[in-house]
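A further point concerns the way the authors explain their paired sequence and structure data. Since the whole study asks how a given chain folds, the encoding of that fold should be made plain. A single example would do more here than another paragraph of explanation. An entry of this sort, consisting of the sequence and the corresponding backbone structure tokens, reads as follows:

_____
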Amino acid sequence: MKTKAAGQKESAEPGELGEGERPTLRTIAFMAGLGVTTVSRALKDAPEIGQATKNRVQLIAKQIGYRPNRAGVRLRTGKTNVISLVLNSQSEIMGLTSNMVYGISEVLSETPYHLTVTPYSVKNDPMQPVRYIVETGSADGIIMSRTEPDDPRVRYLTEHGIPFATHGRTEMGIEHPFHDFDNEAFAYLSVKRLIARGRHRIAMVAGPSPSVTYYRHLDRGFKRAVEEGRATSVPVPDIDVDTSLGRIRDRMEEIMSGPHRPDGIVSCSGSAAIAIVAGIEAAGLKIGDDVDLVSKQSTDVLQWFRPQIIVFNEDVRHAGRELARAVLRRIEGVDARELQSLSSPGQHDQR
């Protein structure tokens, strides 16, 4: 019979979890009274494993906080089980980033994959984070936003055979997975709403430049509605949705204090809309009386802030879910043309 010296800890049984140790497949097998292979298959939802066994194994895994060892998974399968969201660090503050992450995470929670966020600044080369992910093999798939008509990231990832999905479209003749909001329809319907309210001098605070695809979509919809309604397009130089909120507020006060101010404004960002309202009110004018404002939003904050704002909702959480499904299916080899979706502003979104 073995005895232990004074102060010596008893050794754990094979598969038993010792103090400070990370739970493994062997730990679950020990607790469930099953073989390691059976446990592994149960966690992967293998069809040959009974549902009762799967439920028991998955419950134990959840209770003890089991997480697959990613290094081991990568050695065995060549996969990281990681999806990387490449997001510019200046994304809209009012719900865009958080809702996008939430939507993606909802889908990934039902899979072995988990999400990492790779931020970058719009002032830097947007290719840098994409190259890093590809060269280090740190993700199985990539989700990225702020697409350009001829986007070098799309070309690079396509040439390297890396699964990806974009929040936004391109115009480069490469079929790839995407989800987008119909910004052309948003701009068109926004101008129509303003004209219906008797507004004829209409301005738009839009995307940063024609180098971003959605700017072109907004511009097409805006110009078409202005022309059809025989309204006047009023330029708002020096500001766009990338401009600091303080600068938008100050510039809007200048514009609205001048003799050629617009009586209707379209904002393509909820946070920009708040700055626009601040500038309008600083000029002594009132939303809904002197000027009407239409804005896209990702949350309900604008109508809490000023109920007079006409809003169109962009469901960014839904976009996150669509993008996650698209990149996962692309990893499985589904044709890119089957992984393209578009959300449209509906009548129920308007006020």
